């Protein structure tokens, strides 16, 4: 029972870090004022991710965040990544595919940074289906870890035991808003998302 509750707390905490509203729960990356949203390309089809999106997302993260940043994706965008290419003359080159093609193990990186599929990411085409994030830009405060209690008295006449698990936690991004760099006009942040493509 403890293992199941611990696993579920982990899932819900991850979800709060990504999607939390900040009301009675941590403020999530997608609802934070510091999230930079990269616009879709002109004429880009709905529910797609193209190489230009990834390039622009990479260019908007803080330079000092690049060594720590990871790509967080919903698993349903993987077909977009595997078929993504960059136009070169009249042909093109694959972006995410390994040298051996489908017979090889995927690299699992974009710009050398890990691509991690998570359940908490939004579905393909929605804001949050792909995030470029430096989680060092997120502060999480936890008080006392998971507290667990069991009582045989609460439901004694029904011959049942009652379990209670409590986790006190809060969190939010370090920055309240995105930063306009000293030289340049496009805002930068620890957290970059691709705007909805409907």
Descriptive report:
By secondary structure, the chain is α+β, with helices and mostly antiparallel strands. It has helices at residues 2-19, 51-60, 78-82; strands at residues 36-38, 70-73, 85-88, 91-94, 109-110, 113-117, 130-133, 138-151, 162-173, 191-194. Strands 1-10-7-2-6-5 form a 6-stranded mixed beta sheet, with helices on one face. It has a two-stranded antiparallel sheet with strand order 3-4. Strands 8-9 form a two-stranded antiparallel sheet. A hairpin with a 2-residue loop joins strand 3 (85-88) and strand 4. The longest helix is centred in the N-terminal third of the chain and has 18 residues, at 2-19. It is globular and about 80 Å long. The relative contact order is 0.25. The model has no long low-confidence stretch (mean pLDDT 92).
SSE blueprint and pairings:
Layout: H1 2-19, E1 36-38, H2 51-60, E2 70-73, H3 78-82, E3 85-88, E4 91-94, E5 109-110, E6 113-117, E7 130-133, E8 138-151, E9 162-173, E10 191-194
Parallel strand pairs: 1-10, 2-6
Antiparallel strand pairs: 2-7, 3-4, 5-6, 7-10, 8-9
Which key terms come to mind for this protein?
6-stranded mixed β-sheet, alpha+beta, 198 residues, two-stranded antiparallel sheet
Low-confidence stretches: none
Structural class of the secondary elements? Answer: alpha+beta
Instruction: Count up the helices.
Output: 3
Give the C-alpha Rg.
Answer: 21 Å
- The shape is globular
Helix and strand element order: HEHEHEEEEEEEE
Strands of the biggest beta sheet: in what spatial order?
1-10-7-2-6-5
Could you tell me the mean pLDDT?
92
User: Strand share of the residues?
Assistant: 25-35%
Question: Roughly what percent helix?
Answer: 10-25%
The N- to C-terminal Cα distance equals: 42 Å
Count of DSSP E strands?
10
Major sheet attributes: 6 strands, mixed
């Amino acid at each position: 029972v403890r293992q199941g509750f611990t696993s579920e707390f982990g899932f819900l905490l991850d979800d709060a870090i990504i999607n939390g509203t900040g009301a009675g729960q941590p403020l999530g990356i997608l609802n934070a004022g510091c999230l930079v949203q990269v616009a879709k390309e002109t004429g880009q089809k709905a529910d797609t991710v193209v190489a230009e999106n990834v390039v622009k997302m990479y260019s908007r993260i803080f330079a000092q965040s690049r060594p720590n940043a990871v790509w967080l994706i919903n698993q349903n965008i993987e077909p977009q990544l595997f078929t993504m290419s960059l136009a070169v003359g009249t042909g093109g080159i694959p972006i995410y595919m390994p040298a051996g093609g489908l017979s090889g193990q995927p690299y699992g990186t974009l710009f050398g940074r890990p691509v991690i599929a998570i359940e908490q990411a939004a579905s393909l085409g929605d804001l949050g289906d792909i995030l470029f994030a430096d989680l060092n830009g997120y502060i999480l405060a936890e008080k006392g870890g998971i507290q667990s209690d069991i009582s045989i008295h609460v439901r004694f006449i029904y011959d049942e035991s009652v379990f209670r698990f409590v986790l006190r936690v809060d969190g939010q991004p370090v920055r309240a808003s995105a930063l306009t760099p000293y030289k340049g006009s496009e805002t930068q942040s620890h957290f970059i998302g691709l705007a909805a493509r409907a």
